[in-house]
UniProtKB/TrEMBL annotation:
Signal sequence coordinates: none
Organism encoding this protein: Periophthalmus magnuspinnatus
Keywords assigned by UniProt, alphabetized: Disulfide bond, Endonuclease, Hydrolase, Nuclease, Secreted
Gene3D superfamilies: Ribonuclease A-like domain
Location (main, coarse): secreted
Gene Ontology MF, one: endonuclease activity
Keyword Nuclease: yes
Domain Ribonuclease A-domain, chain residue ranges per copy: 9-128
Descriptive protein name: Ribonuclease A-domain domain-containing protein
Record GO biological process: angiogenesis; defense response to Gram-negative bacterium; defense response to Gram-positive bacterium
PANTHER family: ANGIOGENIN-RELATED, RIBONUCLEASE
Length: 132
């Protein structure tokens, strides 16, 4: 996902926190959380097809940008966590528009791959089952 460079790193970090960090998130809360946080396709009322929440504190996730993570494949800014995190994947069901988006949630424990800039997570790339 290309993010325009004119958006500050701090704003991108705040957006990452809003879209992907929710300590205590459960698979049954996808509809409510996606709606309350107004998570849609950027600049539209279109429901976002899928969204992943990391069920951990921002401070723990931020550490993946440093000692709690390592470079992912050959990317210059992607990092993979050294430890798995509890996550909830919310996948859209139906073809509605915000605020009527409906989601099916699935819980898992996965390693997370995030994009970091200046030590802050600014992009959720994917989750991986194992580090091989």
């Amino acid at each position: 996902v290309e993010v325009p460079p004119h958006i500050s790193i701090n704003d991108r970090y705040k957006k990452f926190i809003n879209q992907h960090v929710n300590q205590g998130m459960s698979r049954t809360r996808c509809d409510a959380v996606m709606r309350s946080r107004k998570i849609t396709v950027t600049n539209s009322t279109q429901c976002k097809e899928t969204n992943t929440f990391i069920s951990a504190g921002a401070k723990e996730i931020k550490k993946v940008c440093n000692a709690a993570g390592k470079p992912y494949k050959n990317s210059h800014n992607l990092r993979v966590s050294n430890q798995p995190f509890p996550i909830v994947n919310c996948k859209q069901k139906g073809n509605h528009r915000y605020p009527k988006c409906e989601y099916r949630g699935r819980s898992a424990t996965r390693y997370i791959v995030i994009g970091c800039e200046d030590g802050l997570p600014v992009h959720f790339e994917r989750d991986v089952r194992d580090l091989s």
